[in-house]
Amino acid sequence: MSSLDARELVAEEITSKQLEIDIRAEMNVFEKKFGKLYKLKCSETAEKFSGDKEVILEVIENLLSNAFRYAKTKVEMEVFFTSSELQIRIKDDGVGFTVDKQKATELFYQQNVKDSLKHSGMGMYISRLYCEKHGGQLLIENEKQSGAVITAVFHRIA
Predict the structure, then answer these.
(1) CA–CA separation, 127 and 61 (whole Å)
(2) Which one of 30, 77, 145, 154 has the minimum C-beta count within 10 Å?
């Protein structure tokens, strides 16, 4: 755990087009693995975001893994991209969070006992930590109809 806290961010320029390509590749893997559909909305812009691409992609992978695991049929992602802020919003059509939503970002949290056989319960914790290292945050909500909505916010780093 201390290595996560000590991890130094490495700033690099990230374009919306390259990020979309990386996200789509990840979503294709999860779509095949879980047999659920996805929708990706990523508007192209000439602006460039300065952030740790490896860390951002790790957060995206963690959040997609959860979304595809809990979705009934589909996962939707929207990417909001400016030079100063990057927001990744992921929504699934599952049951959503059944307990205090903020507990989901605690270390080793698992919503379902059966989950302990499939994952360690560290993904949301790591995602929150990495968003905060980028000066951002991890926002957790339930959709009004059904499903979870997670928004990872990253601020520009130098």
Answers:
(1) 9
(2) 145
Do the Cβ atoms of 25 and 32 come closer than 8 Å? no
pLDDT single digits (tens) 74-108: 999 999 999 999 999 999 999 988 765 565 555 54
d(CA 63, CA 61): 6
Mean pLDDT of 27-40: 96
C-alpha pair distances (Å), 66 with each of 37, 48, 121, 156 = 14, 28, 10, 26
Nearest Cα residue to 69 out of 111, 39, 102? 111
Which single residue is written with the structure tokens 């909305």? 41
- For 16, the enclosing helix (H) or strand (E) is helix 16-34
